[in-house]
């Protein structure tokens, strides 16, 4: 009987990880479509940013994450969590406003966008049964933002961000923000650069914010899906990440 139960558990884990792998694979599709429309390779987007903007990007990202962590958490007590499409639509509208004035308004819009993205991630955490105000959940929310971002083409699945979960163990949230910010700064730099393209800035901003909101909500489902699966089955998180990598290579 015990052997049969273990077999069923293994099948359930395998199927659950396969479903998460499919979400991971689908997450970046919209971002790649935006790149295709712009006809700009992701690697060259950062080169479009003025040097002074690039120099300020990491600092702005740290401040944005700190504000987002506080504001997104605080807003949950005033405004209940919304459906994923509502969070995506709101982030898209913020992008439209941010794209109207080019780089100046895009930089000003950045903390607002990060806050909206964080709200979406927290809502996914709550859907999986985790309290967004708990310390571990806040760290896992940060982990989502260590992902490569939606506007990446032609690269193998990068699961190194999931190993950052161990790095975040034992540190407070604000130290964690400092660890995650450099990676997120590169991701947001691509977004800002896309918004500076003349004429279609507002439209591009809307499209990029839509793809970013969709992407991070899907990645949140992967992160919190793995965490829930780890807790419910007793399978170590690292082992589930290895299984996820194997599914993505199939």
Explain this structure to me?
This protein is an all-alpha fold and 250 residues long. The chain has one domain. It has eleven helices and no strands. The two termini are 32 Å apart. The N terminus is likely disordered.
Helix tally? 11
Supply Rg: 18 Å
Number of strands: 0
The oligomeric state is: single chain
Return the string of H and E elements: HHHHHHHHHHH
Characterize the biggest β-sheet.
none
**Low-pLDDT segments, ≥5 res:** 1-11, 95-99
Mean pLDDT: 78
Give the terminus-to-terminus CA distance: 32 Å
Overall structural class, as computed from helix and strand content, comes to mainly alpha
Tally of individual domains: 1
Helix amount, in percent? over 70%
Strand content: under 5%
Shape: globular
Summarize the structure.
The chain has one domain (about 1-250). It has 11 helices and no strands. The protein has helices at about 1-25, 30-40, 40-45, 50-75, 85-100, 105-125, 135-145, 160-170, 175-195, 200-235, 235-250.
Topology:
Elements: H1 2-27, H2 29-38, H3 42-45, H4 51-76, H5 84-99, H6 103-127, H7 135-144, H8 160-168, H9 173-195, H10 201-233, H11 237-249
Defining key terms:
250 residues; mainly alpha; 11 helices; 0% strand; globular; disordered N terminus
């Amino acid at each position: 009987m015990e052997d049969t139960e273990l077999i069923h558990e293994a099948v359930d884990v395998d199927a659950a990880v396969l479903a998460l792998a499919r979400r991971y694979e689908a997450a970046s599709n919209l971002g790649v479509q935006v790149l295709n429309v712009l006809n700009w390779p992701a690697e060259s987007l950062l080169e479009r940013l003025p040097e002074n903007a690039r120099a300020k990007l990491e600092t702005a990202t740290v401040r944005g994450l700190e504000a987002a962590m506080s504001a997104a958490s605080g807003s949950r007590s005033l405004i209940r969590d919304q459906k994923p499409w509502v969070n995506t639509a709101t982030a898209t509208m913020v992008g439209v406003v941010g794209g109207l004035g080019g780089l100046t308004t895009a930089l000003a819009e950045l903390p607002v966008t990060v806050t909206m993205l964080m709200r979406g991630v927290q809502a996914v955490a709550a859907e999986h049964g985790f309290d967004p105000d708990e310390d571990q959940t806040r760290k896992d929310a940060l982990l989502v933002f260590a992902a490569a971002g939606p506007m990446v083409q032609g690269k193998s699945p990068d699961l190194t961000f999931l190993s950052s979960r161990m790095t975040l163990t034992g540190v407070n949230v604000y130290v964690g923000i400092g660890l995650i910010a450099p990676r997120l700064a590169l991701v947001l730099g691509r977004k800002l650069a896309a918004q500076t393209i003349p004429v279609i800035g507002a439209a591009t901003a809307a499209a990029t914010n839509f793809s970013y909101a969709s992407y991070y909500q899907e990645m949140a489902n992967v992160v919190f899906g793995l965490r829930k699966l780890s807790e419910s089955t007793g399978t170590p998180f690292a082992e589930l990440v290895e299984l996820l990598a194997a599914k993505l290579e199939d």
